[in-house]
TrEMBL record:
Single GO MF annotation: acid-amino acid ligase activity
Organism: Linum tenue
Coiled-coil segments: none
Domain GH3 C-terminal span(s) in chain numbering: 439-553
Domain GH3 middle, first and last residues per copy: 350-424
GO cellular component: cytoplasm
Name of the protein this chain belongs to: Jasmonic acid-amido synthetase JAR1
Keywords, ordered alphabetically: Ligase
InterPro entries: GH3, GH3_C, GH3_M
Family: Belongs to the IAA-amido conjugating enzyme family.
Protein's UniProt keywords contain Repeat: no
Domain of life of the organism encoding this protein: Eukaryota
Amino acid sequence: MLESMEMVDPSKVIEEFEAMTKDAERIQRETLKKILEDNGSAEYLRDQGLDGRTDPESFTACVPLVTHKELESYIHRIADGDSAPVLTGRPITTISLSSGTSQGKPKLLPFNDELMDTTLQIYKTSFAFRSREFPLGKGMALQFIYSSKQGKTKGGLVSGTATTNVFRNALYKQAMRALQSQCCSPDEVIFGTDFQQSLYCHLLCGLIFREEIQFVCSTFAHSIVLAFRTFEEVWQELCSDIREGVLSSRVTTPSVRAAMLKLLKPDPESADLIYEKCVGLSNWYGLIPQLFPNVKYVYGIMTGSMEPYLKKMRHYAGDIPLLSADYGSSEGWIGANVNPKLPPELATFAVLPNIGYFEFIPLTENPNHIYMDAKPLSLTQVKEGEEYEVVLTSVAGLYRYRLGDVVKVVGFHNSTPELKFVCRRNLLLSINIDKNTEKDLQVAVEEAAKLLAEEKLEVVDFSSLVEKDSSSEPGHYVIFWEINGEPSEEVLAECCSQLDKSFVDLGYVSSRKVKAIGPLELRIVRRGTFQKILDHYLELGGAVSQFKTPRCVGPVNKVVLEILCSNVAQTYFSTAYD
Ligand code: AMP
Protein backbone atom coordinates (compact mmCIF):
# COMPACT_ATOMS: atom_id res chain seq x y z
CA MET A 1 0.00 0.00 0.00
CA LEU A 2 2.80 2.38 0.95
CA GLU A 3 4.60 2.12 -2.43
CA SER A 4 1.40 2.65 -4.32
CA MET A 5 0.60 5.76 -2.24
CA GLU A 6 3.93 7.29 -3.29
CA MET A 7 2.91 7.48 -6.91
CA VAL A 8 -0.83 7.68 -7.26
CA ASP A 9 -1.81 7.47 -10.89
CA PRO A 10 -5.53 8.30 -11.09
CA SER A 11 -6.10 6.38 -14.31
CA LYS A 12 -4.51 3.24 -12.86
CA VAL A 13 -6.58 3.53 -9.67
CA ILE A 14 -9.75 3.91 -11.73
CA GLU A 15 -8.78 0.95 -13.90
CA GLU A 16 -8.31 -1.25 -10.81
CA PHE A 17 -11.58 -0.04 -9.35
CA GLU A 18 -13.41 -0.83 -12.59
CA ALA A 19 -11.96 -4.35 -12.72
CA MET A 20 -12.80 -5.01 -9.09
CA THR A 21 -16.36 -3.75 -9.27
CA LYS A 22 -17.03 -5.85 -12.39
CA ASP A 23 -16.25 -8.87 -10.29
CA ALA A 24 -17.85 -7.78 -7.01
CA GLU A 25 -19.29 -11.16 -6.01
CA ARG A 26 -16.00 -13.05 -6.35
CA ILE A 27 -14.07 -10.26 -4.61
CA GLN A 28 -16.54 -10.34 -1.72
CA ARG A 29 -16.05 -14.12 -1.31
CA GLU A 30 -12.28 -13.68 -1.38
CA THR A 31 -12.41 -10.80 1.09
CA LEU A 32 -14.52 -12.80 3.54
CA LYS A 33 -12.19 -15.79 3.13
CA LYS A 34 -9.17 -13.63 3.95
CA ILE A 35 -10.84 -12.03 6.98
CA LEU A 36 -11.86 -15.44 8.35
CA GLU A 37 -8.45 -17.01 7.66
CA ASP A 38 -6.54 -14.12 9.22
CA ASN A 39 -8.76 -14.13 12.31
CA GLY A 40 -9.76 -17.80 12.57
CA SER A 41 -7.74 -18.17 15.76
CA ALA A 42 -9.71 -15.39 17.52
CA GLU A 43 -11.87 -16.56 20.42
CA TYR A 44 -15.03 -14.96 19.02
CA LEU A 45 -14.79 -16.80 15.70
CA ARG A 46 -13.64 -20.09 17.25
CA ASP A 47 -16.79 -20.08 19.38
CA GLN A 48 -19.09 -19.82 16.34
CA GLY A 49 -18.43 -23.36 15.07
CA LEU A 50 -17.13 -22.42 11.64
CA ASP A 51 -14.45 -25.13 11.85
CA GLY A 52 -12.28 -23.50 9.24
CA ARG A 53 -15.05 -22.85 6.72
CA THR A 54 -14.78 -19.46 5.03
CA ASP A 55 -17.66 -19.38 2.53
CA PRO A 56 -20.48 -16.81 2.93
CA GLU A 57 -23.15 -19.51 3.36
CA SER A 58 -21.43 -21.15 6.36
CA PHE A 59 -20.47 -17.75 7.75
CA THR A 60 -24.00 -16.38 7.76
CA ALA A 61 -25.40 -19.69 9.08
CA CYS A 62 -22.98 -19.85 12.04
CA VAL A 63 -22.28 -16.23 13.02
CA PRO A 64 -25.13 -14.13 14.47
CA LEU A 65 -26.03 -10.58 13.52
CA VAL A 66 -24.88 -8.30 16.35
CA THR A 67 -24.94 -4.70 17.47
CA HIS A 68 -22.26 -2.93 19.47
CA LYS A 69 -23.96 -4.05 22.69
CA GLU A 70 -23.23 -7.74 22.06
CA LEU A 71 -19.55 -7.05 21.34
CA GLU A 72 -19.01 -4.55 24.15
CA SER A 73 -17.69 -7.09 26.66
CA TYR A 74 -15.13 -8.41 24.13
CA ILE A 75 -13.94 -4.91 23.20
CA HIS A 76 -13.69 -3.91 26.87
CA ARG A 77 -11.56 -6.98 27.58
CA ILE A 78 -9.20 -5.90 24.78
CA ALA A 79 -9.12 -2.32 26.08
CA ASP A 80 -8.42 -3.60 29.58
CA GLY A 81 -5.28 -5.36 28.36
CA ASP A 82 -6.30 -8.93 27.39
CA SER A 83 -3.71 -9.60 24.69
CA ALA A 84 -5.04 -13.04 23.69
CA PRO A 85 -6.69 -13.17 20.23
CA VAL A 86 -10.18 -12.06 21.27
CA LEU A 87 -11.74 -10.62 18.10
CA THR A 88 -8.77 -10.67 15.72
CA GLY A 89 -5.89 -13.06 15.07
CA ARG A 90 -3.28 -10.38 15.73
CA PRO A 91 -3.89 -8.45 18.95
CA ILE A 92 -5.51 -5.03 18.68
CA THR A 93 -3.21 -2.24 19.90
CA THR A 94 -5.35 0.82 19.23
CA ILE A 95 -8.92 1.67 20.21
CA SER A 96 -11.15 4.13 18.35
CA LEU A 97 -13.79 6.19 20.10
CA SER A 98 -16.81 6.78 17.90
CA SER A 99 -18.35 10.26 18.12
CA GLY A 100 -21.17 8.76 20.20
CA THR A 101 -23.49 11.65 19.48
CA SER A 102 -26.50 9.35 19.13
CA GLN A 103 -25.81 7.30 22.28
CA GLY A 104 -24.69 10.13 24.53
CA LYS A 105 -21.26 8.61 25.12
CA PRO A 106 -18.42 7.42 22.85
CA LYS A 107 -18.37 3.72 21.86
CA LEU A 108 -15.09 1.80 21.93
CA LEU A 109 -14.11 0.09 18.68
CA PRO A 110 -11.04 -1.82 17.48
CA PHE A 111 -8.59 -0.09 15.10
CA ASN A 112 -5.71 -1.82 13.29
CA ASP A 113 -3.30 -1.57 10.33
CA GLU A 114 -5.75 -3.30 8.02
CA LEU A 115 -8.37 -0.64 8.78
CA MET A 116 -5.77 2.03 8.03
CA ASP A 117 -5.11 0.35 4.67
CA THR A 118 -8.81 0.43 3.77
CA THR A 119 -8.89 4.12 4.76
CA LEU A 120 -6.08 4.87 2.34
CA GLN A 121 -7.77 2.84 -0.36
CA ILE A 122 -10.98 4.83 0.01
CA TYR A 123 -9.06 8.13 -0.07
CA LYS A 124 -7.13 6.99 -3.14
CA THR A 125 -10.25 5.86 -4.99
CA SER A 126 -12.29 8.99 -4.49
CA PHE A 127 -9.22 11.15 -5.17
CA ALA A 128 -8.76 9.43 -8.54
CA PHE A 129 -12.34 10.12 -9.58
CA ARG A 130 -12.23 13.65 -8.17
CA SER A 131 -9.03 14.59 -9.95
CA ARG A 132 -10.37 13.28 -13.26
CA GLU A 133 -13.19 15.86 -13.07
CA PHE A 134 -11.45 18.57 -11.04
CA PRO A 135 -7.67 18.36 -11.54
CA LEU A 136 -5.59 20.08 -8.88
CA GLY A 137 -2.56 22.25 -9.49
CA LYS A 138 0.50 22.35 -7.27
CA GLY A 139 -0.36 23.58 -3.83
CA MET A 140 -1.94 22.74 -0.51
CA ALA A 141 -5.25 22.08 1.18
CA LEU A 142 -6.85 24.13 3.92
CA GLN A 143 -8.04 21.28 6.11
CA PHE A 144 -10.13 22.00 9.17
CA ILE A 145 -9.07 18.84 10.95
CA TYR A 146 -8.60 18.35 14.66
CA SER A 147 -7.31 15.57 16.79
CA SER A 148 -9.12 14.39 19.91
CA LYS A 149 -7.34 14.02 23.19
CA GLN A 150 -5.32 10.87 22.69
CA GLY A 151 -5.30 8.71 25.77
CA LYS A 152 -4.56 5.23 27.02
CA THR A 153 -7.10 2.60 27.98
CA LYS A 154 -6.88 0.79 31.31
CA GLY A 155 -4.82 -1.90 29.58
CA GLY A 156 -2.42 0.64 28.05
CA LEU A 157 -3.79 0.69 24.48
CA VAL A 158 -3.69 3.97 22.57
CA SER A 159 -7.19 5.44 22.28
CA GLY A 160 -8.62 8.36 20.34
CA THR A 161 -11.30 9.05 17.78
CA ALA A 162 -10.94 7.08 14.54
CA THR A 163 -9.93 10.24 12.66
CA THR A 164 -7.25 10.95 15.29
CA ASN A 165 -5.90 7.41 14.89
CA VAL A 166 -5.77 7.98 11.13
CA PHE A 167 -4.14 11.47 11.34
CA ARG A 168 -1.50 10.12 13.75
CA ASN A 169 -0.66 7.12 11.57
CA ALA A 170 2.77 7.34 9.90
CA LEU A 171 1.22 6.58 6.51
CA TYR A 172 -1.27 9.44 6.65
CA LYS A 173 1.08 12.29 5.81
CA GLN A 174 2.70 10.36 3.00
CA ALA A 175 -0.72 9.59 1.60
CA MET A 176 -1.78 13.23 1.77
CA ARG A 177 1.30 14.20 -0.24
CA ALA A 178 0.60 11.51 -2.81
CA LEU A 179 -2.98 12.71 -3.09
CA GLN A 180 -2.00 16.38 -3.52
CA SER A 181 -3.79 17.09 -0.24
CA GLN A 182 -0.98 18.33 1.97
CA CYS A 183 -2.40 20.33 4.87
CA CYS A 184 -1.26 23.95 5.02
CA SER A 185 -1.23 23.90 8.83
CA PRO A 186 1.63 22.40 10.84
CA ASP A 187 1.02 19.23 12.90
CA GLU A 188 1.12 21.23 16.12
CA VAL A 189 -2.11 22.95 15.00
CA ILE A 190 -3.88 19.71 14.05
CA PHE A 191 -2.84 18.05 17.31
CA GLY A 192 -3.26 21.15 19.50
CA THR A 193 -5.11 20.52 22.73
CA ASP A 194 -7.37 23.59 22.47
CA PHE A 195 -9.70 23.37 19.53
CA GLN A 196 -10.53 27.12 19.42
CA GLN A 197 -6.84 27.94 19.13
CA SER A 198 -6.37 25.30 16.43
CA LEU A 199 -9.30 26.68 14.48
CA TYR A 200 -7.85 30.20 14.63
CA CYS A 201 -4.47 28.93 13.46
CA HIS A 202 -5.97 26.87 10.61
CA LEU A 203 -7.61 30.09 9.38
CA LEU A 204 -4.36 32.00 9.75
CA CYS A 205 -2.37 29.33 7.87
CA GLY A 206 -4.99 29.37 5.13
CA LEU A 207 -4.51 33.13 4.75
CA ILE A 208 -0.71 32.92 4.84
CA PHE A 209 -0.79 30.36 2.01
CA ARG A 210 -3.89 31.80 0.36
CA GLU A 211 -2.54 31.72 -3.19
CA GLU A 212 -1.54 28.07 -2.86
CA ILE A 213 -4.79 26.73 -1.42
CA GLN A 214 -6.25 24.25 -3.92
CA PHE A 215 -9.24 23.12 -1.90
CA VAL A 216 -10.90 23.60 1.47
CA CYS A 217 -11.99 20.51 3.39
CA SER A 218 -12.89 18.85 6.67
CA THR A 219 -14.07 15.36 7.64
CA PHE A 220 -17.69 16.43 8.26
CA ALA A 221 -19.09 19.65 6.75
CA HIS A 222 -20.03 20.99 10.19
CA SER A 223 -16.36 21.93 10.78
CA ILE A 224 -16.22 24.03 7.59
CA VAL A 225 -19.29 26.04 8.52
CA LEU A 226 -18.01 26.46 12.07
CA ALA A 227 -14.65 27.68 10.70
CA PHE A 228 -16.10 30.38 8.46
CA ARG A 229 -18.66 31.47 11.05
CA THR A 230 -15.65 31.99 13.32
CA PHE A 231 -13.84 33.82 10.52
CA GLU A 232 -16.71 36.33 10.43
CA GLU A 233 -15.89 37.16 14.05
CA VAL A 234 -12.10 37.12 14.02
CA TRP A 235 -11.15 38.33 10.54
CA GLN A 236 -9.84 41.69 11.70
CA GLU A 237 -7.63 40.03 14.28
CA LEU A 238 -6.33 37.65 11.60
CA CYS A 239 -5.55 40.59 9.32
CA SER A 240 -3.71 42.35 12.09
CA ASP A 241 -1.61 39.21 12.83
CA ILE A 242 -0.61 39.10 9.17
CA ARG A 243 0.05 42.84 8.99
CA GLU A 244 2.31 42.89 12.07
CA GLY A 245 3.71 39.38 11.87
CA VAL A 246 2.69 38.95 15.50
CA LEU A 247 0.51 36.09 16.66
CA SER A 248 -2.67 36.92 18.58
CA SER A 249 -2.46 36.43 22.33
CA ARG A 250 -5.48 34.12 22.10
CA VAL A 251 -3.05 31.38 20.99
CA THR A 252 -1.41 30.34 24.24
CA THR A 253 -0.27 26.73 23.74
CA PRO A 254 3.54 27.02 23.52
CA SER A 255 4.06 24.35 20.81
CA VAL A 256 1.31 25.85 18.62
CA ARG A 257 2.71 29.38 19.10
CA ALA A 258 6.21 28.23 18.21
CA ALA A 259 5.05 26.45 15.06
CA MET A 260 2.93 29.41 13.95
CA LEU A 261 5.65 31.97 14.57
CA LYS A 262 7.87 30.10 12.11
CA LEU A 263 5.30 30.82 9.39
CA LEU A 264 4.25 34.34 10.29
CA LYS A 265 6.14 37.31 8.78
CA PRO A 266 4.89 40.91 8.62
CA ASP A 267 3.00 41.24 5.34
CA PRO A 268 1.01 44.52 5.26
CA GLU A 269 0.27 44.17 1.56
CA SER A 270 -1.45 40.83 1.96
CA ALA A 271 -3.26 42.04 5.10
CA ASP A 272 -4.64 45.06 3.22
CA LEU A 273 -5.78 42.90 0.33
CA ILE A 274 -7.61 40.46 2.63
CA TYR A 275 -9.12 43.37 4.55
CA GLU A 276 -10.45 44.97 1.37
CA LYS A 277 -11.87 41.70 0.12
CA CYS A 278 -13.73 41.13 3.39
CA VAL A 279 -15.14 44.66 3.45
CA GLY A 280 -16.24 44.29 -0.16
CA LEU A 281 -18.33 41.17 0.43
CA SER A 282 -22.05 41.32 0.87
CA ASN A 283 -23.00 39.27 3.92
CA TRP A 284 -19.90 37.05 3.32
CA TYR A 285 -21.31 35.57 0.11
CA GLY A 286 -18.50 33.88 -1.87
CA LEU A 287 -15.98 34.31 0.97
CA ILE A 288 -14.00 31.16 0.10
CA PRO A 289 -13.06 32.02 -3.52
CA GLN A 290 -12.40 35.62 -2.49
CA LEU A 291 -9.86 34.55 0.11
CA PHE A 292 -8.35 31.72 -1.90
CA PRO A 293 -8.03 32.73 -5.56
CA ASN A 294 -6.92 29.26 -6.78
CA VAL A 295 -9.44 27.17 -4.85
CA LYS A 296 -11.05 24.44 -6.99
CA TYR A 297 -13.66 23.00 -4.64
CA VAL A 298 -14.88 22.53 -1.07
CA TYR A 299 -14.72 18.92 0.09
CA GLY A 300 -16.12 16.97 3.07
CA ILE A 301 -18.99 14.70 4.14
CA MET A 302 -22.07 16.76 3.33
CA THR A 303 -24.73 14.06 3.34
CA GLY A 304 -26.98 12.71 6.11
CA SER A 305 -26.88 14.79 9.28
CA MET A 306 -24.62 17.31 7.48
CA GLU A 307 -27.29 18.34 4.95
CA PRO A 308 -28.63 21.16 7.15
CA TYR A 309 -25.28 22.94 6.73
CA LEU A 310 -25.35 22.88 2.91
CA LYS A 311 -27.09 26.19 2.50
CA LYS A 312 -24.50 28.02 4.57
CA MET A 313 -21.65 26.23 2.78
CA ARG A 314 -23.03 27.21 -0.62
CA HIS A 315 -23.20 30.78 0.64
CA TYR A 316 -19.52 30.80 1.63
CA ALA A 317 -18.46 28.84 -1.49
CA GLY A 318 -20.20 31.13 -4.00
CA ASP A 319 -19.53 29.65 -7.45
CA ILE A 320 -17.04 27.02 -6.21
CA PRO A 321 -18.48 23.47 -6.31
CA LEU A 322 -19.20 21.46 -3.17
CA LEU A 323 -17.90 17.89 -3.45
CA SER A 324 -19.26 15.31 -1.06
CA ALA A 325 -16.74 12.94 0.56
CA ASP A 326 -16.95 9.20 1.20
CA TYR A 327 -19.11 7.04 3.45
CA GLY A 328 -17.65 5.28 6.42
CA SER A 329 -17.67 5.02 10.18
CA SER A 330 -15.32 4.33 13.05
CA GLU A 331 -16.30 0.68 12.56
CA GLY A 332 -15.08 0.57 8.95
CA TRP A 333 -15.41 2.13 5.49
CA ILE A 334 -18.29 1.37 3.15
CA GLY A 335 -18.10 3.29 -0.10
CA ALA A 336 -16.41 6.01 -2.12
CA ASN A 337 -17.98 8.89 -3.98
CA VAL A 338 -17.07 8.06 -7.58
CA ASN A 339 -19.46 10.64 -9.10
CA PRO A 340 -17.98 13.81 -7.61
CA LYS A 341 -19.87 16.06 -10.01
CA LEU A 342 -23.22 15.21 -8.43
CA PRO A 343 -24.46 17.82 -5.95
CA PRO A 344 -24.30 16.66 -2.30
CA GLU A 345 -28.09 16.12 -2.20
CA LEU A 346 -27.66 13.41 -4.86
CA ALA A 347 -24.30 12.01 -3.74
CA THR A 348 -23.89 8.25 -3.87
CA PHE A 349 -21.27 5.86 -2.56
CA ALA A 350 -20.01 2.88 -4.55
CA VAL A 351 -19.19 0.03 -2.19
CA LEU A 352 -15.58 -1.16 -2.48
CA PRO A 353 -15.93 -4.95 -2.51
CA ASN A 354 -12.47 -5.64 -1.04
CA ILE A 355 -12.59 -3.47 2.10
CA GLY A 356 -14.96 -5.64 4.13
CA TYR A 357 -17.75 -8.16 3.73
CA PHE A 358 -21.12 -6.47 3.38
CA GLU A 359 -24.70 -7.59 3.93
CA PHE A 360 -27.89 -5.62 3.69
CA ILE A 361 -31.04 -6.13 5.76
CA PRO A 362 -34.05 -5.30 3.54
CA LEU A 363 -36.27 -2.73 5.25
CA THR A 364 -39.86 -2.69 4.21
CA GLU A 365 -41.81 0.28 5.33
CA ASN A 366 -45.48 0.29 6.25
CA PRO A 367 -47.52 3.51 6.28
CA ASN A 368 -46.46 4.25 9.86
CA HIS A 369 -42.75 4.10 9.04
CA ILE A 370 -42.27 0.93 11.05
CA TYR A 371 -39.46 -1.04 9.47
CA MET A 372 -39.99 -4.79 9.20
CA ASP A 373 -36.73 -6.68 8.83
CA ALA A 374 -36.09 -9.54 6.46
CA LYS A 375 -33.15 -11.91 5.89
CA PRO A 376 -29.94 -10.07 4.94
CA LEU A 377 -28.88 -10.06 1.30
CA SER A 378 -25.35 -10.11 -0.08
CA LEU A 379 -23.72 -7.12 -1.82
CA THR A 380 -24.70 -8.28 -5.29
CA GLN A 381 -28.23 -9.41 -4.37
CA VAL A 382 -29.55 -5.97 -3.42
CA LYS A 383 -32.17 -4.29 -5.65
CA GLU A 384 -32.23 -0.80 -7.06
CA GLY A 385 -34.79 1.43 -5.34
CA GLU A 386 -34.86 -0.58 -2.09
CA GLU A 387 -33.76 0.52 1.39
CA TYR A 388 -31.49 -1.53 3.63
CA GLU A 389 -29.65 -1.48 6.92
CA VAL A 390 -25.89 -1.97 6.41
CA VAL A 391 -24.26 -4.99 8.08
CA LEU A 392 -20.48 -4.94 8.15
CA THR A 393 -17.84 -7.63 8.64
CA SER A 394 -14.70 -5.58 9.03
CA VAL A 395 -10.97 -6.14 8.77
CA ALA A 396 -10.70 -5.09 12.42
CA GLY A 397 -12.69 -7.76 14.26
CA LEU A 398 -16.37 -6.92 13.79
CA TYR A 399 -18.45 -9.76 12.35
CA ARG A 400 -21.96 -9.24 10.96
CA TYR A 401 -22.18 -5.93 12.79
CA ARG A 402 -25.35 -3.89 12.30
CA LEU A 403 -24.20 -0.38 11.62
CA GLY A 404 -27.58 1.21 12.30
CA ASP A 405 -27.51 3.22 9.06
CA VAL A 406 -30.30 3.09 6.48
CA VAL A 407 -29.17 3.33 2.84
CA LYS A 408 -30.98 3.20 -0.48
CA VAL A 409 -29.59 1.43 -3.54
CA VAL A 410 -29.87 4.02 -6.31
CA GLY A 411 -27.98 2.14 -9.02
CA PHE A 412 -24.94 0.02 -9.71
CA HIS A 413 -21.37 0.77 -10.68
CA ASN A 414 -20.63 -2.37 -12.70
CA SER A 415 -21.82 -5.03 -10.23
CA THR A 416 -21.34 -3.12 -6.98
CA PRO A 417 -24.24 -1.06 -5.61
CA GLU A 418 -24.19 2.71 -5.38
CA LEU A 419 -25.77 3.71 -2.08
CA LYS A 420 -27.47 6.88 -1.01
CA PHE A 421 -27.32 7.56 2.72
CA VAL A 422 -30.88 7.84 4.09
CA CYS A 423 -30.66 8.20 7.88
CA ARG A 424 -29.63 6.58 11.13
CA ARG A 425 -31.99 3.75 11.83
CA ASN A 426 -32.99 4.64 15.39
CA LEU A 427 -36.21 6.56 15.48
CA LEU A 428 -36.03 10.07 16.68
CA LEU A 429 -39.47 11.26 17.58
CA SER A 430 -42.24 8.93 18.61
CA ILE A 431 -45.02 9.31 21.17
CA ASN A 432 -47.59 6.74 20.13
CA ILE A 433 -48.24 5.74 16.52
CA ASP A 434 -46.18 8.62 15.09
CA LYS A 435 -42.67 7.83 13.83
CA ASN A 436 -40.32 10.56 12.65
CA THR A 437 -36.69 10.09 11.69
CA GLU A 438 -33.79 12.52 11.60
CA LYS A 439 -34.59 13.15 7.94
CA ASP A 440 -38.26 13.99 8.73
CA LEU A 441 -37.08 16.46 11.38
CA GLN A 442 -34.62 18.02 8.94
CA VAL A 443 -37.33 18.47 6.31
CA ALA A 444 -39.69 20.10 8.84
CA VAL A 445 -36.95 22.47 10.03
CA GLU A 446 -36.08 23.43 6.44
CA GLU A 447 -39.73 24.13 5.68
CA ALA A 448 -40.25 26.34 8.74
CA ALA A 449 -36.89 28.09 8.34
CA LYS A 450 -38.10 29.48 5.01
CA LEU A 451 -40.12 31.96 7.07
CA LEU A 452 -36.88 33.16 8.67
CA ALA A 453 -35.13 33.45 5.32
CA GLU A 454 -37.66 36.12 4.39
CA GLU A 455 -36.11 38.16 7.24
CA LYS A 456 -32.56 37.23 6.11
CA LEU A 457 -32.07 35.10 9.23
CA GLU A 458 -31.17 31.44 9.56
CA VAL A 459 -31.23 28.48 11.91
CA VAL A 460 -27.64 27.96 13.07
CA ASP A 461 -28.38 24.52 14.50
CA PHE A 462 -31.27 22.51 15.93
CA SER A 463 -32.22 19.56 18.07
CA SER A 464 -35.40 17.97 19.43
CA LEU A 465 -36.99 16.20 22.36
CA VAL A 466 -40.12 14.19 23.11
CA GLU A 467 -41.76 15.68 26.19
CA LYS A 468 -44.14 13.31 27.90
CA ASP A 469 -43.45 13.33 31.61
CA SER A 470 -46.85 14.18 33.02
CA SER A 471 -49.31 11.29 32.83
CA SER A 472 -52.33 13.58 32.49
CA GLU A 473 -50.98 15.51 29.48
CA PRO A 474 -50.49 13.99 26.04
CA GLY A 475 -46.83 14.12 25.03
CA HIS A 476 -45.59 16.64 22.49
CA TYR A 477 -42.54 17.38 20.33
CA VAL A 478 -40.10 20.07 21.43
CA ILE A 479 -37.77 21.61 18.84
CA PHE A 480 -34.75 23.67 19.90
CA TRP A 481 -33.47 26.36 17.51
CA GLU A 482 -30.45 28.60 17.68
CA ILE A 483 -30.92 31.56 15.31
CA ASN A 484 -28.31 34.07 14.10
CA GLY A 485 -30.40 37.13 14.98
CA GLU A 486 -33.67 38.19 16.55
CA PRO A 487 -36.80 37.64 14.49
CA SER A 488 -40.08 39.10 15.69
CA GLU A 489 -42.31 37.09 18.01
CA GLU A 490 -44.96 36.87 15.27
CA VAL A 491 -42.50 35.24 12.88
CA LEU A 492 -41.34 32.76 15.50
CA ALA A 493 -44.93 31.86 16.39
CA GLU A 494 -45.54 31.21 12.69
CA CYS A 495 -42.36 29.11 12.45
CA CYS A 496 -43.60 27.04 15.38
CA SER A 497 -46.96 26.26 13.74
CA GLN A 498 -45.21 25.61 10.43
CA LEU A 499 -42.90 23.08 12.10
CA ASP A 500 -45.95 21.30 13.51
CA LYS A 501 -47.65 21.21 10.08
CA SER A 502 -44.47 19.99 8.39
CA PHE A 503 -44.41 16.61 10.17
CA VAL A 504 -46.63 14.89 7.66
CA ASP A 505 -46.46 11.25 8.73
CA LEU A 506 -49.96 9.86 9.12
CA GLY A 507 -49.40 8.71 12.70
CA TYR A 508 -48.42 12.23 13.76
CA VAL A 509 -51.13 14.08 11.84
CA SER A 510 -53.94 11.81 13.08
CA SER A 511 -52.68 11.92 16.67
CA ARG A 512 -52.48 15.71 16.56
CA LYS A 513 -56.01 15.95 15.18
CA VAL A 514 -57.48 13.88 18.03
CA LYS A 515 -55.17 15.63 20.54
CA ALA A 516 -53.35 12.40 21.43
CA ILE A 517 -50.23 14.48 20.83
CA GLY A 518 -50.12 18.03 22.19
CA PRO A 519 -49.10 21.20 20.28
CA LEU A 520 -45.48 21.28 19.13
CA GLU A 521 -43.25 23.53 21.21
CA LEU A 522 -40.47 25.66 19.73
CA ARG A 523 -37.76 26.72 22.17
CA ILE A 524 -35.33 29.38 21.03
CA VAL A 525 -31.93 28.98 22.69
CA ARG A 526 -29.32 31.71 23.21
CA ARG A 527 -26.45 32.22 20.76
CA GLY A 528 -23.57 29.88 21.51
CA THR A 529 -25.69 27.09 23.01
CA PHE A 530 -24.73 24.54 20.34
CA GLN A 531 -21.09 25.50 20.80
CA LYS A 532 -21.50 24.47 24.45
CA ILE A 533 -22.79 21.07 23.29
CA LEU A 534 -19.73 20.64 21.07
CA ASP A 535 -17.49 21.60 24.02
CA HIS A 536 -19.22 18.97 26.14
CA TYR A 537 -18.40 16.24 23.58
CA LEU A 538 -14.80 17.40 23.38
CA GLU A 539 -14.60 17.02 27.15
CA LEU A 540 -15.77 13.41 26.80
CA GLY A 541 -12.85 12.68 24.44
CA GLY A 542 -14.65 13.40 21.15
CA ALA A 543 -13.13 15.41 18.31
CA VAL A 544 -14.51 18.30 16.33
CA SER A 545 -13.60 16.38 13.17
CA GLN A 546 -16.22 13.72 13.89
CA PHE A 547 -18.82 15.85 15.66
CA LYS A 548 -22.45 15.47 14.71
CA THR A 549 -25.05 17.56 16.51
CA PRO A 550 -27.40 15.19 18.39
CA ARG A 551 -30.72 15.78 16.66
CA CYS A 552 -32.79 14.24 19.43
CA VAL A 553 -31.98 14.43 23.09
CA GLY A 554 -33.46 11.89 25.43
CA PRO A 555 -32.57 10.50 28.85
CA VAL A 556 -29.24 9.12 27.52
CA ASN A 557 -28.14 12.64 26.66
CA LYS A 558 -28.82 14.17 30.07
CA VAL A 559 -26.02 16.76 30.00
CA VAL A 560 -26.92 17.93 26.48
CA LEU A 561 -30.54 18.24 27.56
CA GLU A 562 -29.48 20.34 30.53
CA ILE A 563 -27.37 22.60 28.31
CA LEU A 564 -30.31 23.12 25.96
CA CYS A 565 -32.93 23.64 28.66
CA SER A 566 -30.84 26.05 30.70
CA ASN A 567 -30.30 28.28 27.65
CA VAL A 568 -33.88 28.70 26.51
CA ALA A 569 -34.68 32.35 25.84
CA GLN A 570 -38.17 32.09 24.32
CA THR A 571 -40.88 29.44 24.02
CA TYR A 572 -43.75 29.12 21.52
CA PHE A 573 -46.60 26.62 21.13
CA SER A 574 -48.11 25.69 17.79
CA THR A 575 -51.66 26.69 16.98
CA ALA A 576 -51.66 24.57 13.80
CA TYR A 577 -54.34 22.11 14.91
CA ASP A 578 -56.44 24.43 17.14
P1 AMP B 1 -18.49 8.04 13.57
O1 AMP B 1 -18.03 6.65 13.55
O2 AMP B 1 -18.90 8.48 14.91
O3 AMP B 1 -17.58 8.99 12.91
O4 AMP B 1 -19.83 8.14 12.71
C1 AMP B 1 -20.12 7.30 11.65
C2 AMP B 1 -21.51 7.60 11.17
O5 AMP B 1 -21.52 8.86 10.50
C3 AMP B 1 -22.02 6.62 10.14
O6 AMP B 1 -22.52 5.44 10.71
C4 AMP B 1 -23.09 7.47 9.47
O7 AMP B 1 -24.27 7.48 10.22
C5 AMP B 1 -22.46 8.85 9.46
N1 AMP B 1 -21.76 9.05 8.18
C6 AMP B 1 -20.50 8.75 7.84
N2 AMP B 1 -20.23 9.06 6.56
C7 AMP B 1 -21.37 9.57 6.05
C8 AMP B 1 -21.75 10.07 4.79
N3 AMP B 1 -20.91 10.15 3.75
N4 AMP B 1 -23.02 10.49 4.66
C9 AMP B 1 -23.88 10.46 5.68
N5 AMP B 1 -23.58 10.01 6.90
C10 AMP B 1 -22.34 9.56 7.08
